[in-house]
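Q: How would the structure tokens look for this protein?
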Amino acid sequence: MARLRPFGISFDKSLEDLIKGIRANGNNPEKLAAFFDSSIQECKDELKTSDIEQKSIAILKLTYLEMYGFDMSWCSLYVLDVLSSPKFQHKRIGYLAAIQIMERQNNDDALMLMTNQLKKDLNSSNYIECGLAISGIASIVTTELAHDICDDLAKMLNHSKPFIRKRAVLAMYKVFLRYPESLRTYFDQIVDKLDDPDSSVVSATVNVICELAHANPKNYIELTPRLYGLMKDTNNNWMAIRLLKLFSSLSLVEPRLKNKLLPEIVDLMLTTDALSLVYECINSILNGNMLGEEDVKVAELIVNKLLGFFKSDDQNLKYVCLLAFIKTCRIHKELIKTHDKILLSCLYDDDLTIRETSLEIVNYLVSEKNIVTVVTRLLVQLIPYNDQKQRLKDIGNRAEKDTDDYFLSRTQQPVVVSDKYKLRVIEKIIEVGSLENYINIPNFHWYLGVLKDILKLNGDNQISIVNMLVTDQFIDMAVRVPSIRPSLVETCIELCVYPQKTDEELLLFRQGLANCVWIIGEYYNDYLTYDEDDAEGRDEEAEEDEEQEHRVKDKYTVPFIVDCISKQEVLIRLGDDETNPRISAYIEAVAKLFSKYCTALGDYWSKDDFSSAAELCKTLIEWLERFRTSANFEVQERAVSFIEVLKLASDAISTHSEKLGENLATLEVPKFITKGYRQLFEVSQIKPISRTLQQRVPVPADLDLSLAISSQGMSDFADLLEQIQERDSKLEEAGEAEDDNIEGGEGYSARSESDSEKEDVDIEEEVRRKKEREERLKDDPFYITGGDELRNSSTTDDSGEGQQQKQSKRKNNKPKKIRREKVLVLDEEGDNSEAEELHSTFRKTQGKGQGKFLVDASNLKKVDLHEEPTSETGETNEGSYEIEQEVEMLRSEIEEPEAVPFVRKQTPPRVAETVTVTRKKPKKKKRSRRVPIENGP
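A: Here is the predicted structure in token form.
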């Protein structure tokens, strides 16, 4: 076989045979696993031979198998054998295996043995082998290898072949990542490659400096004149793109660069036809903070360029264009509204990523005039897929008559979207509606209808958090907009009280129950005193159904609501949930409703009023008795408290009703109701309060939170804690000793009879005291018991027939015209910008996690080229003062502003318009700059 191999005859399996075998057994996992095992074993046998050709083929096959997830770190030494072969074909296979196997497995031992071979190949007369070595170093370099190889690699920066110089520049960046201190030593040599005669070397150098500038831009400000000249003279679009990225990083640390860079970037944007370069010009302006509020013409140019991107069929181009639009609109909001039709069309793009990204820009597009259209088109996306087609068809038919809506309807297509996207749409609708204290809402009855539609659509989507989001918005509207409270109370009654809700319906809506019931209890008086004649802006459909609303409204009395709530058996189950605060809101709401009911009856009651109030009070007490022994402490406490208060109210009502005789038709309300019970709920009205109001309370000057309130108390506490710990340790030791005795068969023999009798007496005494305490506190209503007998006895089986369902409103396919209404929207008390800024400082910011495939350049942030550590003798470098002068000259040149050119003038080419700085290199090889001695090395 060895004699035939030079003639191309071999009986070993090649890589091609291995791939064919994998494909042949790919349909059967068991056969494929067996084939893998046999192939690896064959490769192990082939590696034991002394034939380097056979070894290289085996290494090549193992490298391929490593991509299937097999651990090949065991063959690292064999890789070194192939890598050290004098034949280029074998060496190439060896480097390929080293790059793939050693980089992933991080085999430090093999890398240590590989260092000498890398140095040998770097100094090879064959430049192709030298290029292989550089590629291998860039892929597998570690901190230790970077220390050993950086000097040899730096020599390749001056190689005669541009191919080697280019690779050496790129590999030096990987060395800098692993060994940041080497950047101080070889920075000058990297910068010198900007003047290399070969354009590929210059491009590679720009790439390296661009990546370095992302980590610490201030180190490279002094290179701005040379980089600026390169951007003006280059014809390579890819190099221009990298330079633009570099300038966007530099302008963040030196804002004065804008005066020099912005005119050239705008000029480049106007003269190039490459879309990639145009976008990068826009991106560098936005990311480099070069676009200010005063740069109106530049903003208009950016928007006009971006509009051309939307006409492209490339979804990636549309996506990056949308991102640039979002950045632009945050600075110039007035420009973005002129193109709202095109931007809104992105909400219906087939690409869901574009849809989701476009939601971020909706805030800047919404106004009082178009909010109805925008919200309607957002609601369409919540409709199930099968129902979207007819809905979109109706919108398209109306759009044929409306030229403004034609473009939007033409792009709408029904798309299946995820629940996560639907939740994002719902959050955006609520955010847009409540923007700036509801400044864009033309009619709050329309907005309430939108929120009710969201709840109806969520009945099919079943996104649990939506009920909480919508009902939270209900509360905010109820607190801020007094005129909408009657409609909100009616809506909340329909959601959680009437018609008779089944257990399944209440469980599905459990996230919103507490908020709805709170609104009913808090604002029921507004519902009773609501006058339709005072309401403005009611839509035509609602006005036509006034008579039906009056009939339904008569049913929503307090006794009717309390009766419906008392028949909802699922509330008992929710009340036992210790983590569920909803039933406590129910208990407080029905207590408020009794107060509202007594207020609505007036100051003088008739006999019928006394009996109805007494009957309602009795019903409430019976319902609250069911929660007397709830496992939820808060529910139990509120139930017991309100039971006792209602019993006092019942006694007061019955006492006064007995005074009514034949001569008295009415009698004044009991003082306990007017002066006592009502004051629990009706003393003051809830108003919107700024969330930053508490932070405006100044901290007392004499408050020291680190100072103990009582020094003696703290010392006593420390002594007591020490005693408890000692006692616990003794008890633990005694318990262990007792366990040992029991295990050894000496358990009860070690005890004395007197100790046993004493323990029995203590147990009997404790049981007797416990029974006496339970007997004494049995009738105490404020004593919380946990017995199951009381809970079982208090549970009643209330069943009743369901209430008659509310008639459905007449459907009208014609689009409703929303009329503008004049309403009072309450402002937040104590709201100011300073407090808001203070609040923002307390918000926690979460850093974005670094991607798996991104390069970690965090070590380069610690390297400051302008501050070199001092030498051991404390002397500084002679060139440090000259470098400071260069920086000052550069800044003085940048400070001269220039006008922004929008049309390139036909002028002769200029040799140089920038400041040329001649830098004197230090005599020593390593650069050392001045740093204050007190900072240390």
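DSSP finds 44 helices and two strands in the chain.

The radius of gyration is 41 Å.

Upvote if useful.
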